[in-house]
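Chapter summary example.
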Amino acid sequence: MDIDTNLLKDLEGYVIYSLDYKETSRIIKIFTKRLGVISVMARGAKNPKSKKMNLTSPYCKSKFNLKKSRGFYYLIDGEIIDANLGLRTSIDNLYYSQLFSEIILKTVYENMENNEIYDFYDKILKHIDKIERKDILLAMFLLKYSSMLGYKPNLLSCINCGKDRFNRVYFNIDYGGIVCQDCYGPVGGIALSRQDYTYLTQLLYEKIDRADEIDFPKARADEINRILMRFLFDKTEIKKLNSWDLIEKLKLL
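The structure predicted for these 253 residues follows.
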C-alpha cells in the first residue's frame, strides 16, 4: 500500500498517548509498524457508545483505518488485536508501560518506519505483566533500546585503552562504556562492583522473558537503572520523563 494515499487500511500499531479534545473527541499518538509515531484525531471517541473509545485506550494494539487530510490523520474505525488487559492488573504494570511508551514517544521520529524498535516495544508490553522484577526489565529495556538507537555501550573492553582484563571497573556515561583502573584517573567514571559489571553484561545479552531468572539485589538494581537513565538522557534529546519521576517518588513512600 502506498503510504502517501489519503486512506490507510489495517495500519498496525499501539496507542502510546491519549489526550481529550473538546467534549467528545481525543487526539492520540499511535506507534505504528510502518509509519513510526503518528498523531491521529479520533472524533467522538469519548462517546460511551462509540467503537472508537476502546481503540483509543492506551497500550491497546489494533489495526487502524485512517484518513489523511491536510497532513493530519483521522480515525475512521479499526479492530483490536490485543487489549493488553494484563497491564491493568497492577499499578506497577501501568506505570512501567507508561514509562516505556513515553521513552518511545520522545525518541521515535514521526512518519518514519522502524520495525526493529516496534517489534521490541511489542515484546516488552507482552511481558510486563508476566515479569515480577520490573526493575530488571527496565534495565534490559534501557540497555537494549539505547543500543537500537545507535548508542550501544562498550562493556567488553576499556573504551580508552582497549584492555579486556581489569581488577576494578568504572562506567563512563560521556564515552559510553567501561573504563579500567589504569584509565580511570584521566577519563573518570562511576565505580562498579564485579557483581554490577557482570549484571550489566548479562542484561545486554539476555532475553527479555528471562528477566526473573537474573539474581541481583534490588537496591543495586535501582541504582544501575539511575545510571542507565542518565546514559539515555545524555545520548538522546530527552530532558525529562514524567513517568520516571513518578516511579522514583513512589519508591520513597
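To summarize the output: The beta strands are 7-21, 25-32, 36-42, 61-69, 72-82, 169-172, 177-180, 190-192.
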